[in-house]
């Protein structure tokens, strides 16, 4: 029996993390490069913790990457240059302990309004980049305080969720306080008025990248006054007056790329923008119904400019951005990353395109489930796979989430689209996802494991995951102290355990003990996600003779009875009952039936479950 595939989007609750005590540090290949820089970004997670907690560098330049594990390590202020709070629960007390240690912080990532309210106390006057998600409860007051305390800010990105409590007043405060701003991307604001946009034009002379995404109203005419813009996105924004857009945006002297995906833009506006703007090189219009229904527009000649739409050959268009043709169109992102041409303009466009495509494709998977099948099989899957290579962490995460979501065909019946799943496999997506699941970044581990889990509901993908060592990777992730990682990894093992070939491999990999250990680890957590997936996998496995014997040896039968008797979560109860039933009914072993009967409390628990109001449990 396969686990039900849950359609998950990017929004998640905050997870608190208890850092484990660090074992004695052992040298794992740490070395200095020719410039004397410590190259530790590729080291294992525990090694990085030990490295940072045991070394005391006076030379700030001797560290070259991101410090993510800060909780209680007592790290010297000179080490703080980049900080990721997304995996942590940052409250006022935590922020207070950080404040005196973060004077040199330049880049900050956070999740949730609680973290946003806490970080305003950081003493990081040199902070240049702030990125936050799960920001739906952030208010004007918090944004204004952050802007006022960080006048050196160059980049502020909040989303992709909806920041409905942020108004134009906050945008004006950002403009007035942060005159060095180069990038501003905000999502889900109700109204962005002309005063706010004009303030950006007046005070932020270096503003090159602006995004008002999934907003309700944006003053189109005012955007034409931000003459410094090179990149503009209004993706998903409603109530746009495209006649005004055609008049004002074509005069932006530096506008190189524009994103109008998921809007009501029509053929006339697109034609005007592409033909009248001298600087515009790229126009993204993914999933714009008015264009896709306009048969006359499908053969439109863009005259050397790139139009990114579901009906265009996106990879071929991307290849034309290069001075020379690439050998393989669908490798265009990979080849760009390996170019040594030092073309700053091309680099900026391609970096922007990666971010825009990952955002738009993920949004489209969420709102158009079961639609655009030809696009997903012919181009969409390959695009998402190519974005897994990105050096931008949020792009990688969104691409993995997109792959987990776009394969779902019917959310109610947990069906997946086999053609889409196998398209991911054809383009090398399974190997990439397994590599990313082995990353030390917990957010990426979770999203990659989710994609592997959903894709593994297809038997051919499940076989590919097994052959490429995916079972051991998922088993290792299942041991994670972070709930979301453990949930997705155990979900993957559940789906793999449905198929015979992966099931045989699981039985040989000692995964049964891992799953039983997880029952004891999470049984008192009060949340059923990990437990339900764990027991669902065991229920499939215990029909195998080797697995059923191992279950008894490692105390798994006792664990299942304990849950069947004491757990009040219906999903967990159902899977525990199914596991006991499958174990007792194992055709090749009458002793299993006896073992269940002899286990203390087993019969009492089963009788109790037969009285459940839940049909599946009965």
Automatic annotation (TrEMBL):
A Pfam family annotated for this UniProt entry: F-box-like
ARM repeats: 428-470, 469-511, 510-556
InterPro entries named in the record: ARM-like (IPR011989), ARM-type_fold (IPR016024), Armadillo (IPR000225), F-box-like_dom_sf (IPR036047), F-box_dom (IPR001810), Leu-rich_rpt_Cys-con_subtyp (IPR006553), LRR_dom_sf (IPR032675)
Residues of the signal peptide: none
Record flagged with keyword Cell wall biogenesis/degradation: no
Domain annotation F-box: ranges: 40-86
Family matches, as PROSITE patterns: ARM_REPEAT
UniProt KW keywords: Repeat
UniProt keyword annotation of Repeat present: yes
PANTHER family for the chain: PROTEIN ARABIDILLO 1
Official protein name in the record: Similar to ARABIDILLO-2
Phylogenetic classification of the source organism: Eukaryota, Viridiplantae, Streptophyta, Embryophyta, Tracheophyta
């Amino acid at each position: 029996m396969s686990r039900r595939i849950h359609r998950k989007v990017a929004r998640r609750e905050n997870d608190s993390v208890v850092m484990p005590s660090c074992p004695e540090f052992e040298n794992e290949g740490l070395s200095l490069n020719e410039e004397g820089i410590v190259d530790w970004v590729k080291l294992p997670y525990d090694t990085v913790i030990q490295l940072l907690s045991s070394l005391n560098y006076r030379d700030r330049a001797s560290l070259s990457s991101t410090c993510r594990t800060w909780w209680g390590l007592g790290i010297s202020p000179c080490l703080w240059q980049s900080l990721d709070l997304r995996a942590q629960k940052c409250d006022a007390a935590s922020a207070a302990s950080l404040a005196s240690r973060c004077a040199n912080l330049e880049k900050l990532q956070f999740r949730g309004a609680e973290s946003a309210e806490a970080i305003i106390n950081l003493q990081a006057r040199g902070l240049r980049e702030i990125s936050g998600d799960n920001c739906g409860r952030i208010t004007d007051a918090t944004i204004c305080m952050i802007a006022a305390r960080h006048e050196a800010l160059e980049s502020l990105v909040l989303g992709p969720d909806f920041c409905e409590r942020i108004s134009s007043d906050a945008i004006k405060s950002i403009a007035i306080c942060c005159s060095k701003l180069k990038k501003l991307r905000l999502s889900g604001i109700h109204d962005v008025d002309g005063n706010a946009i004009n303030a950006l034009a007046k005070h932020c002379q270096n503003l090159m990248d602006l995004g008002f995404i999934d907003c309700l109203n944006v003053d189109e005419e005012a955007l034409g006054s931000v003459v410094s813009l090179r990149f503009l996105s209004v993706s998903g924004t409603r109530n746009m007056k495209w006649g005004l857009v055609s008049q004002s945006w074509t005069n932006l002297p530096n506008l190189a790329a524009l994103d109008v995906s998921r809007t009501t833009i029509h053929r006339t506006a697109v034609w005007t923008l592409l033909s009248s703007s001298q600087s515009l090189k790229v126009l993204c219009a993914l999933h714009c119904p008015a264009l896709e229904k306009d048969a006359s527009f499908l053969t439109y000649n863009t005259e050397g400019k790139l139009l990114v739409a579901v009906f265009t050959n996106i990879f071929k268009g991307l290849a034309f951005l290069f001075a020379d043709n690439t050998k393989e169109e669908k490798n265009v992102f990979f080849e760009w990353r390996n170019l040594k041409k030092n073309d700053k303009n091309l680099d900026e466009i391609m970096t922007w395109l990666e971010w825009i495509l990952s955002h738009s494709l993920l949004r489209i998977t969420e709102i158009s489930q079961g639609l655009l099948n030809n696009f997903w099989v012919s181009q969409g899957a390959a695009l998402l796979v190519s974005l897994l290579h990105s050096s931008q962490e949020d792009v990688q995460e969104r691409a993995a989430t997109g792959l987990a979501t776009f394969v779902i065909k019917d959310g109610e019946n947990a069906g997946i689209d086999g053609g889409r799943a196998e398209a991911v496999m054809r383009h090398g997506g399974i190997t990439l996802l397994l590599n990313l699941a082995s990353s030390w970044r917990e957010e990426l581990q979770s999203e990659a494991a989710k994609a592997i889990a959903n894709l593994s509901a297809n038997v051919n993908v499940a076989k590919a995951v097994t052959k490429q060592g995916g079972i051991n990777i998922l088993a290792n992730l299942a041991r994670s102290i972070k709930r979301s990682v453990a949930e997705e990894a155990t979900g993957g093992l559940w789906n793999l355990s449905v198929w015979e070939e992966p099931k045989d491999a699981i039985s040989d990999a000692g995964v049964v003990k891992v799953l039983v250990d997880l029952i004891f680890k999470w049984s008192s957590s009060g949340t059923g996600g990990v437990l339900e997936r764990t027991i669902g996998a065991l229920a499939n496995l215990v029909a195998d003779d080797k697995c059923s014997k191992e279950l008894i040896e490692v105390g798994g039968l006792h664990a299942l009875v304990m849950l069947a008797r004491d757990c009040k979560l219906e999903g967990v109860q159902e899977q525990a009952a199914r596991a006991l039933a499958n174990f007792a009914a194992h055709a090749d072993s009458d002793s299993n039936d006896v073992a269940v009967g002899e286990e203390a409390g087993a019969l009492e628990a089963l009788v109790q479950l037969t009285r459940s109001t839940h049909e599946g449990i009965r």
